[in-house]
Amino acid sequence: MDKTQKVELLRIAGRQIGFDFPMSQHTTLRVGGNAESVYEASDPDGLSGVVSFLVKEEIPYLVAGKGSNLLVRDGGIGGVVILLAGAFADIQFEGSDYPDILAGAGLSIADLLIWCREKGLSGLEFLAGIPGSVGGAVAMNAGAFGKETGPRVREIRLVSQRGQLTARDRSRLRFSYRDSNLEPGVVITNVLFRLDRDAPKTVSARIAGCLKRRKETQPLEYPSAGSIFKNPLNDYAGRLIEQAGLKGKRIGGAMISNKHANFIVNKAGATAMDILTLIDLAREEVRRTAGVQLELEVQIVGGAEKP
Ligand SMILES: Cc1cc2nc3c(=O)[nH]c(=O)nc-3n(C[C@H](O)[C@H](O)[C@H](O)COP(=O)(O)OP(=O)(O)OC[C@H]3O[C@@H](n4cnc5c(N)ncnc54)[C@H](O)[C@@H]3O)c2cc1C
């Protein structure tokens, strides 16, 4: 971004724009360099105006949810990182089709589930313990315990790659394993979910059950991005990494978890490079020992050098 573009961005977005923002503070792995600029969007019209400007000026941008599936390289991210706050964290019943709910894309999964539990709404309990946002869960088609987010989505409201506020209904959405057919540059603003009624006590018990299972199997005491690799067909990435003898392997401040080999944890002061080196090692060793090419689930963003 040149100086004129920065001044214009400040004019359009005012105090919602910041510069040189440490992405380690906005990712669950707690590593990575700074974002050249961060825009904290609080309403759809403002967001639409900023995206239109960025597209016109060909300034790259990335929308980040809670940063729980992002590995930001040590050089940081050029352009603008868009975060969703304000009205994007709202949640309400939609129309007369109770129990359909409209959730802001910036709402955390934890807050979404607290609301669902209070209102006696079932269908998304399997997401309990995933430290992401509603937008991130839909973009990634987050899933656990054999269930995925996609089947519960009726409609997505969004800002298009041209900066227009629009909506996309179920018939135009495709979800696959940790992926959706949303084009890069699209910003989800709200999601309409179709849920079921159930007793708050039952919903609460299901959420507690999911949290318990996670605690037993995942190294939640350290920063991580959850599973680093997707599970290959009919197998588990964690099992293959363990079989390759890499459990507990440490490089710098990063380590392949002893508890769950598909998690790389930040034990103390890891850099993105430490984690990237472990990723390469795990891929190479699994390919050598099992003949399987692991595919990344975590998204690597930014550059090795400062923009
Ligand atoms: C301890 C731990 C456990 C986890 N367990 C699971 C699990 O069981 N299942 C699972 O699926 N994942 C799991 N994850 C990974 C992660 O939490 C999910 O992928 C989550 O859905 C990411 O949401 P986020 O808001 O953090 O998105 P981010 O990590 O910020 O972004 C991920 C992607 O979504 C896009 N995105 C985010 N918000 C929007 C938006 N509003 N509009 C358009 N695109 C958007 C980003 O551009 C990026 O491409 C785990 C992570 C951790 C740290």
TrEMBL record:
PANTHER family: UDP-N-ACETYLENOLPYRUVOYLGLUCOSAMINE REDUCTASE
Protein name: UDP-N-acetylenolpyruvoylglucosamine reductase
Subcellular location as annotated: Cytoplasm
Superkingdom field: Bacteria
Pfam families noted in UniProt: FAD_binding_4, MurB_C
Catalytic activity: UDP-N-acetyl-alpha-D-muramate + NADP(+) = UDP-N-acetyl-3-O-(1-carboxyvinyl)-alpha-D-glucosamine + NADPH + H(+)
EC number: 1.3.1.98
Domain FAD-binding PCMH-type: 31-198
Natural source organism: Candidatus Desulfacyla euxinica
Primary location class: cytoplasm
Entry's family note: Belongs to the MurB family.
Uppermost EC category: oxidoreductase
GO terms (BP aspect): cell division; cell wall organization; peptidoglycan biosynthetic process; regulation of cell shape
Pathway per the UniProt entry: Cell wall biogenesis; peptidoglycan biosynthesis
